[in-house]
Amino acid sequence: MAILTNLADDALIALDNLTDRAASLVNPTIRLGVTGLSRAGKTVFISSLVHNLLNGGRLPLFEPARSGRISRVRLEPQPDDAVPRFQYEEHIRALVSERLWPESTRAISQLRITLDYESASGWGRFWSPGRLSVDIVDYPGEWLLDLPLLGQDFRTFSDNTIALARNGVRHLLSADWLGATALLDPRAPADEAATRRLAETFTLYLRACKSDERSLSTLPPGRFLMPGDLEGSPALTFAPLPNLPDGRAPKGSLWAMMERRYEAYKSHVVKPFFREHFARLDRQIVLIDALQAVNRGTEAVHDLERALGDVMACFRPGSSGLLSSMLTRRIDRVVVAATKADHLHHESHPHLEALTRRLVERAIKRIGLSGAGVEVMALASVRATREATVNQDGTTLPVIVGTPMAGETINGETFDGNRKTAIFPGDLPENPDSLFQGIESNSEERLAPTLNFVRFRPPEMDAPGGELRLSIPHIRLDRALQYLIGDRLA
Ligand code: GDP
Q1: Domains and CATH numbers, the chain
Q2: What global pTM score does this model have?
Q3: What is the mean pLDDT of residues 75-85?
Q4: Which is the most buried residue in 52, 101, 177, 293, by most CB within 10 A?
Q5: Which residues of 80-116 are buried (b: 16+ CB within 10 A; e: fewer)?
């Protein structure tokens, strides 16, 4: 081991991939990334997936489970000591025992689950035993949106960010920050207090975009909203500046200092994340809360499309010199899934799937990923509702039944978190295009259909017949699982 300590960091990182591969020869391993913007449903997805695997849940679309080839499933210590462990047990306690949603992802975490299985390949009759470890890596989508920064200098980053801030509703939200920027002379000597104030108003702007009533998708720098362990760090004290007319900033100026901090953010925050985590993934699922965006109107839908486009660009090997040169392995399968499908009646699920496809398809085409290794679906990691029909004036309406969370209101009625209710959830249009129209008018008018969207408590999970084993109900979690790891258990 002594010899390793003499190697430069970079070499150690490169070695990581080799070590991963060597280890994988002895114990086959797959690294599965789970990402999505905050509140998209990452924590709930991983918790339910792992719980269903560990407890023999209903997974008919996951072939190895359906055909009874999985003999043993267990959690094992993860290989990366420096990464926090995904708090599976705590999350399950909240979900199952307390019927509360677990605490959401705030930083990167990891969990290893190992499956023993009988291989279906070979001569059929002679099944051979196999073993696969899945390292699930949970990380904020906000961090992923930082990767494009690696190919942008401070000037380009500033131009892009300021141009977008002047657009649509962002125009209103960015007024304070852009106003404060206009009062500063970028050529004046750098002043720490002024820099900090500007970074603060910039962060407030990013936060306002992300707020519940706007639901715009986040812009980089991602750590401004999801700082992880960098909370309060000077690495986060910068803000974009308008470009200097003559192009050069004097030494020691505000502009020069912001540029230096931006570059430091890239090399100390973005690059390490890229190398140590992202570049080592084999498969990826991207979760999106499309229903929330639809509820907030056309601009939020467009914004989600833009963010998703940026995310998808990260998965294309060779998309930029910098990214591809550092990629020694590549992600060969990506699932893009709209979560929380249990908020809709199943008749509307194809519409949610069509919307999701529409959200990614242009990005897929633009970056040349057409047809290759991308699967789109609508799922619910935890099904918090069940379906029913009600008769209203002689017509039968499909409804969903669940327990609204305490404090949720429907038609002026506030719920206590215990009482169940049936609601007609509304529907999405068959052709999702209409959800994207109307942005040109620059108005805040909502053209989207109004969905009846309330937060439900996790479902009751009494084991049927007093059995000890219980499995978390879900929608199409097994389909995602089949695409993400099914082939490795063949
Ligand atoms: P994260 O920030 O991506 O980790 O998001 P979480 O997994 O914490 O999910 C955010 C919230 O979305 C949860 O607190 C739930 O209210 C809701 N949610 C997530 N997944 C589901 C689901 O499958 N069904 C329902 N009904 N709600 C969900």
Answers
A1: 7-139+277-381+474-489 (3.40.50.300), 153-269 (no CATH), 386-464 (no CATH)
A2: 0.89
A3: 93
A4: 293
A5: beebeebbbeebbebbbeebebbeebebbbbbbbbbe
